[in-house]
Specification:
Blueprint: E1 3-14, E2 17-28, E3 32-36, H1 43-50, E4 57-62, E5 65-66, H2 72-78, E6 80-83, H3 95-101, H4 110-123, H5 125-129, H6 140-152, E7 158-162, H7 170-185, E8 189-193, H8 197-203, E9 206-211, E10 214-219, H9 222-226, H10 229-234
Parallel strand pairs: 3-8, 3-9, 6-7, 7-8
Antiparallel strand pairs: 1-2, 1-4, 4-5, 9-10
Helix pairs in contact: 3-6
Length: about 240
């Protein structure tokens, strides 16, 4: 795997408080990279900066291009897409309309998007069954599937996910992580922020630990993180 995507010396300030301090990490193409850490450590801040949702200093490089001054829309067009922690679905709209909105940067023509819709429905049959249902009336697990499916409609090259397992029952967590593994096996690069450390490390190729806005530890393989005594003690309870 060759490294095509990297973050160098990223700093984010909330007024005078530094939320992210010179964070540097690499996301190899075709890999699943996870960032773990306690609440308030800066994980969501990191994703927000990469997507251009937050002002920052430092460098975000994607496929060789420096994105530092580019707006969110341009980053989406280049192939970045974020599934946010709160999913941010349009609850008053049907499932299918939410999916179509995920592709609005690519095309507004329904006919052009039909093959992508069918591909998403093949992967998430439950969404096809509920395509006319209002998104806000779905269960938490179904909404998370919809949020991921909506992101896939944008045809991302790098999928960023913020706590996809939050609030879900264990069986649904297993289903979500199985889906992420399958997407990665299909060639999609994934950058995952997750508090379910066991699940995240089970599917990740590389991982980082962030504490107080700083990258505290890097594991160039999931096994390296799993075998680290501090990780095992503080995050895995071993």
């Amino acid at each position: 795997m060759s490294t095509l995507h990297e973050i160098v010396d990223l700093r984010v300030f909330y007024r005078r408080v530094e939320g992210l301090h010179r964070a540097s990490l690499e996301v190899p193409e075709g890999a699943i990279v996870t960032v773990i850490g306690p609440n308030g450590a800066g994980k969501s801040t990191l994703l927000g900066a990469v997507m251009g949702l937050l002002r920052y200093t430092g460098v975000v490089r994607f496929a060789g291009a420096v994105l530092t001054s580019e707006p969110v829309e341009t980053r989406v067009q280049r192939g970045l897409c974020l599934v946010p922690e709160r999913r941010e679905l349009f609850g008053e709209l049907p499932v299918e309309d939410n999916l179509l909105l995920g592709a609005f940067q690519r095309s507004r023509r329904r006919a052009a998007l039909e093959p992508d819709l069918e591909a998403v429905y093949d992967r998430f049959p439950r969404l096809k069954e509920r395509r006319k249902q209002l998104a806000g009336s779905m269960s938490g697990g179904e909404q998370q599937m919809l949020a991921i499916a909506r992101a896939l409609m944008a045809k991302p090259k790098l999928l960023l996910l913020d706590e996809p397992s939050m609030g879900l029952a264990p069986v649904l967590v297993q289903e979500i992580f199985k889906t992420l593994s399958q997407l990665n096996e299909g060639g999609l690069t994934i950058f995952l922020v997750e508090q379910n450390v066991r699940q995240a490390l089970r599917i990740a190729h590389r991982g980082y630990v962030i504490v107080h806005g700083k990258i505290a530890f890097e594991g160039k393989s999931a096994a390296e993180l799993n075998n680290n005594d501090l990780i095992r003690k503080f995050y895995l309870g071993l």
